[in-house]
């Protein structure tokens, strides 16, 4: 499983509350990613990181922010959760050797915003 | 812009029958193509990448640049192949993947 964990695995929250999801890796991969998975949309990239404190937006970044203060952790924050952010969130890592490395995925976090 | 299309959201076959999951892409350069599989409520796992040209669990996929396709094939489907399959594309710069919408494969006994 490439040493990737996500926490929490399940969360129910209310509209307007802040939520932070954590992705943790033990493999020293350079790149980390956050995706959301929704029926009919597949996986869509939210944000990604190409190094400590180096992040960039993906295709669906509105309403999300990220931080990476150390190699092993990549945090995804919903500043004020909305019902449209109900989804399954996957973290992925890559780049142990080079930028062309395969992406490996975490187990996912199921988030419900009421 | 890069785009991946999987035209079939659902695909149902019987055990022992051949199966083909379609994937078409649009990209102006030379992309790298992948197939990922997700078994029920589990994490995505890499199934194939076109540059390795290997067969995993009996699945193969050939990159057809003329037709911009990367269809996934298996000659004899098994019940344990039932899963969601995603085709993904990586461009020539960077590490980002673009995913298709996925095809849910059901193999019936």
Question: What are the key terms here?
Answer:
heterodimer; A: 7-stranded mixed beta sheet; globular; B: 109 residues; mainly beta; 3-stranded antiparallel beta sheet; 11 strands
Structural notes for this entry:
Chain A is mainly β and 114 residues long. In chain A, strands 2, 4, 5, 6, 9, 10 and 11 form a 7-stranded mixed sheet that branches. In chain A, strands 1-3-8-7 form a 4-stranded antiparallel sheet, with no helix packed on it. Chain A is built from no helices and 11 strands. Chain A has strands at residues 4-7, 10-13, 19-25, 31-38, 42-51, 54-57, 64-70, 73-78, 87-94, 104-105, 109-113. Chain B is globular and about 45 Å long. Chain A binds chain B through residues 1, 31, 33, 35, 40-45, 48, 50, 58, 90, 92, 94-95, 99-108, and chain B through 6, 9, 32, 34, 36, 42-46, 49, 86, 90, 94-102.
What structural class do the secondary elements of chain B suggest?
Answer: mainly beta
Biggest pleated sheet of chain A: 7 strands, mixed
Order of helices and strands of chain B: EEEEEEEEEEE
- In round numbers, the mean pLDDT of chain B is 91
């Amino acid at each position: 499983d490439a040493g990737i964990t996500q926490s929490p695995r399940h969360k129910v929250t209310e509209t307007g509350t802040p939520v932070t999801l954590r992705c943790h890796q033990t493999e020293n991969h350079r790149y980390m990613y956050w995706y959301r998975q929704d029926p009919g949309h597949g996986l869509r990239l939210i944000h990604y990181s190409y190094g400590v404190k180096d992040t960039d937006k993906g295709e669906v970044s509105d309403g999300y922010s990220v931080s990476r203060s150390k190699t092993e952790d990549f945090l995804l924050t919903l500043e004020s959760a909305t019902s449209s952010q109900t989804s399954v969130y996957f973290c992925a890592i890559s780049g142990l050797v080079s930028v062309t490395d395969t992406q490996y995925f975490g187990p996912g976090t199921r988030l419900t915003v009421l | 812009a890069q785009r991946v299309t999987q035209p079939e959201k659902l695909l149902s076959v019987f055990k022992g029958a051949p199966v083909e999951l379609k994937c078409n892409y649009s990209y102006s350069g030379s992309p790298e193509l992948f197939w990922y599989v997700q078994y029920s409520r589990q994490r995505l796992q890499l199934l194939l990448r076109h540059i390795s040209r290997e067969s995993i669990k009996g699945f193969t996929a050939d990159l057809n640049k003329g037709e911009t396709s990367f269809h996934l094939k298996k000659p004899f489907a098994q019940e344990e192949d039932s899963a969601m399959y995603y085709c993904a594309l990586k461009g020539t710069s960077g590490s980002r993947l673009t995913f298709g919408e996925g095809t849910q494969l059901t193999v019936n006994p």
